[in-house]
Automatic annotation (TrEMBL):
It comes from the Eukaryota. GO terms for molecular function: 3'-5' exonuclease activity; nucleic acid binding. This is RNA exonuclease 4. Residues 27-42, 70-81 have a biased composition (Basic and acidic residues). Residues 27-81 are annotated as: Disordered. GO terms for cellular component: nucleus. Residues 97-259 form the Exonuclease domain. InterPro entries: REX4_DEDDh_dom (IPR037431), REXO1/3/4-like (IPR047021), Ribonucl_H (IPR013520), RNaseH-like_sf (IPR012337), RNaseH_sf (IPR036397). It holds the Pfam family RNase_T. Keywords: Exonuclease, Hydrolase, Nuclease, Nucleus. Residues 53-63 have a biased composition (Basic residues).
Length: 266
């Protein structure tokens, strides 16, 4: 105890009241209980933290053990600039959630103006070839359009029947997002209908038209040059190359394109 001036005052234990002694004893007991509780809590936290660390360690080990396998099983799509476009590459691939389609036609009818399916090419989202078949025509060809289509008589003479190709293509396209240029023409010649919600037509993409400064329906050649800075179709067309170019255009604006689609649908 201290007086008003702050000088300690000696107190004789005999002068302390019994009530004060009881209060002091209770305070000491409470202090002892608090310290004991803190030790138990600290010990408990250490145990929990130890378990947590062990759990994290096991999780990390599992990730290290299976990480490479997961990466191999689910390869990430290549960026637009990494997709092969002009260089011929026959690397086969499996269908992916996003695929690109392109077809080549020959001419039928008296003036050769009727479109007849001659070749179908499908690439996956890495640009690898999923499907590339020539189609045996169901009617007489009057114009092979070789200078543009790249199709020669021997190629389609040994092609697959139309019905077989149609069935195989339909199986690949089912429930997948299909990218292409002027896809309505390809679907028409294939006698095939695809869900419009899963169709990404670069010829109809307003964003790509704006980037190419084109007010009408741009050609694939125009978009490739204006948006990607590459020249294609300088002679005979190649449906694999054209499919890859359409895919590359889609990937170049995918984020904004998909965002716009979601906004308009809601």
């Amino acid at each position: 105890m201290v007086n008003a001036k702050g000088t300690p005052i000696k107190v004789d234990p005999k002068d302390v009241s019994p009530a004060w002694k009881v209060l002091q004893m209770k305070m000491k007991e409470q202090e002892a209980e608090t310290k004991s509780s803190e030790k138990v809590e600290e010990s408990s936290m250490m145990e929990v933290d130890g378990v947590s660390k062990k759990h994290r360690s096991r999780k990390r080990k599992r990730k290290e053990a299976f990480g490479s396998a997961e990466t191999h099983d689910e390869p990430k799509p290549k960026k637009a600039e990494d997709i092969p476009v002009v260089v011929h590459d026959d690397t086969p691939g499996e269908p992916t959630p996003v695929i690109a389609l392109d077809c080549e036609y020959v001419g039928g009818g008296t003036d050769g103006s009727d479109d007849i399916l001659a070749r179908v090419s499908i690439v996956n989202q890495e640009g690898k070839i999923v499907y590339d078949k020539y189609v045996k025509p169901r009617e007489r060809v009057t114009d092979f359009r070789t200078s543009v289509s790249g199709i020669r008589p021997s190629q389609i003479a040994n092609g697959l029947p139309f019905d077989v190709v149609q069935k195989e293509v339909a199986a690949i396209l089912k429930d997948r997002t299909v990218v292409g240029h002027a896809l309505n023409n390809d679907f028409r010649v294939l006698s095939f209908h695809h869900n419009s919600k899963l169709t990404r037509d670069t010829a109809k993409c307003a964003l790509l038209r704006k980037m190419a400064n084109c007010h009408g329906m741009p050609s694939l050649k125009k978009l490739a040059n204006s948006v990607l800075g590459i020249d294609i179709q300088q002679g005979e067309h190649d449906s694999v190359v054209d499919a890859r170019v359409a895919l590359r255009l889609y990937l170049a604006v995918k984020k904004k394109w998909e965002s716009d689609i979601k906004r308009y649908r809601h």
